[in-house]
Write a structure and sequence with these properties.
There is one protein chain. With 370 residues, this protein is of the alpha/beta class. It has 16 helices and 5 strands. The chain has helices at residues 5-8, 21-24, 29-36, 52-63, 77-84, 108-118, 133-136, 139-143, 155-172, 190-204, 208-221, 224-239, 246-260, 266-278, 284-297, 356-369; strands at residues 42-45, 66-71, 96-101, 123-129, 146-149. Strand 3 (96-101), helix 6 and strand 4 form a beta-alpha-beta unit. The longest helix has 18 residues, at 155-172. It starts with a helix and ends with a helix.
Length: 370
Amino acid sequence: MYQPLADELRPKTLDEVVGQEEILGEGKMLRRMIESGKVPNLIFYGPSGTGKTTVANIIANATQRTLYKLNATTASTADIKEIVSQLDTLMAPNGILLYLDEIQSFNKRQQQSLLQYIENGKITLIASTTENPYFYIFNAILSRSTVFEFKPITPEAAMKAVCRAVDYMTAKTGLRVTQRSAMRYDRGGDNQYDCLSALMKSIRGSDPDAAIHYLARFLEVGDLPSCCRRILCSACEDIGLAYPMAIPIVKACVDAALQLGMPEARLPLADAVIFLATAPKSNSGYLAIARAMQDVQAGKIGVFPRELQNVHADSAGQEREQGYLYPHDYPNHWVKQQYLPDILKGTQYYEYGDNKIEQAAKHYWDEIKK
């Protein structure tokens, strides 16, 4: 019967597992638990392909327990009850080890239903998740489990597994092995948001090499919308008023990329990312709107100054002198008058950035406003 290569090469012992030395190395906690044969309920947290299922198989063999596997994305409470029915039978003489993958897909009620089965010790739960367990797993499950984080496999550690696979393939089939790697990318998950954060922070940090690297990751998986949105945001938030033309320039690059599609989209997007990373930076606009929003959300709004009100809003027969001074009627198109509500009079939200363009604007208005 055909067996996938990954299953044929799956480690059978802890010594064959690559990576995870922090929890599986000699004398480390998880290894000691497994070797003792007394394994508590466990939660394995980490990205796909880091050995969570493999270690669960090794634990089942080491404790001589019957291993049942369920995926929470498709399993139901009825599936768990079916497994429980095997307790104290010849099907599970030493108890049951339940491996529940993607436990975050179970809702709170489904997770609560597990408690009655794991508290008496006849069922040992090993739950795995690619999301942060402290956000997605019910507290009662967490309090009865030990959490272990599985870190991404380093290239050095992965090389051992790759060499083993190549040796196996060569001996068995003599075929060449593809040299293109499958990059980890969980759309909508931690990895996607980490990559988005790394892209924007690299642009903000004026590191074109790092920025172009993270762009390449998005291009490799074909996620144009996510990186385009982040690039546009960076043009407004991080370059901002230090180089206002960055916004229409980047918008043109993004439009070109979306019209071209892959693979040509990489060209305008690469231009945009390098342009932003090497452009002067200012977050003065970002800070100004953040301060203003804070006041508005706190209820500090006040009444519109009479000079700014719409005169047409006055009731018929109750029209009042507005007192608005039209700036274009005055020298340099400016005249002193109050624009903020009385409650906010004198408040300063915007502070000129220390870049050439904003300092030029500051000098211009300082001279006029004196």
